[in-house]
Design goal:
alpha/beta; Rossmann fold; 6-stranded parallel β-sheet; 3-stranded antiparallel β-sheet; 6 helices; binds 6-phosphogluconic acid
């Protein structure tokens, strides 16, 4: 029997671009648009950066916007961090410092690094208090609807569907009240520090950046299969915009 191939109706939150250069340009445009809107609406732009390789070139391209970006009103956070010091090759902060913070006029006071050198549990606690202070939140337990709203959260996706440091089967998948937690990742045999789903889903906008043929299988899986088996499938901003920018190589099986 001929295989019943149903062309997936691409959801309106999926933007497929030709290649990684187009992805970098589209991502920078999206960041600039979000920054302008946020500053117009409430005078500042809060962005949480993702780590890994894909966003590296996006940050480098953004840094080229010397005078064409509101650096002084932009506040940089990290959606996750590895349990390493800031000068370690695996540090997300180190990567962003190399390609962005060391090249653009970002005020040091506008950079909120995860103090991962404290150890994951302490660093997560400390980062949660930094986020709460930035958004002027009390230390009390947050109820749904009280979570702070980052204007933009950038995310990537691993080849097993993880995002930030929310990996399938990891303890943080079940977190519903904290903003930032430490998370043991079995497959990496290491602890990570990560934003939680409630915090991610409170964002004004979540922007996924996914590129390369190596992601084609997982992209097909997460867009074609129903349910929330994969962490990325649990990212649905409650009152914000969701946008996936994916290059053709990663979208080739859709
Ligand atoms: C990290 C990231 C992680 C990343 C994915 C995809 O700290 O590694 O936050 O969630 O986005 O692993 O990484 P690539 O973009 O390098 O494939």
């Amino acid at each position: 029997m001929a295989e019943n191939i149903t062309r997936l109706r691409k959801p309106d939150y999926l933007m497929v671009v030709t290649d990684v250069n187009a992805l970098n340009r589209a991502a920078v445009d999206e960041i600039k648009t979000a920054a302008e809107a946020a500053i117009r609406e409430h005078g500042r732009f809060s962005i949480a950066l993702s780590g890994g390789n894909t966003p590296r070139a996006v940050y480098a391209l953004l840094a080229e916007n010397k005078d064409d970006f509101p650096w002084a009103k932009t506040f940089f956070f990290f959606g996750d961090e590895r349990s390493v010091p800031p000068d370690h090759p695996d540090s997300n902060y180190r990567m962003v410092h190399e390609v962005l913070f060391s090249r653009a006029p970002v005020p040091a006071a506008n950079i909120f690094r995860v103090s991962a050198e404290l150890g994951a549990a302490k660093a997560a606690e400390q980062y949660e208090s930094v986020v709460r202070e930035f958004f002027k939140l009390p230390p009390a337990k947050l109820q749904p609807g009280q979570f702070p709203r980052f204007d933009l959260i950038l995310l990537g996706m691993g080849d097993e569907g993880h995002t930030a440091s929310l990996f399938p089967g990891s303890p943080a998948m079940a977190e519903t009240s904290r903003l930032v937690v430490s998370n043991w990742v079995e497959k990496l045999n290491s602890d990570r520090i990560t934003f939680t789903f409630p915090l991610i889903n409170s964002a004004g906008e979540v922007l996924f950046l996914v590129a390369g043929a190596g992601k084609a299988e997982i992209v097909k899986e997460v867009f074609v299969t129903e349910g929330e088996n994969y962490p990325v499938q649990r990212v649905h901003p409650l009152h914000g915009r969701l946008l996936w920018i994916v290059d053709q190589a990663a979208a080739s099986l859709l």
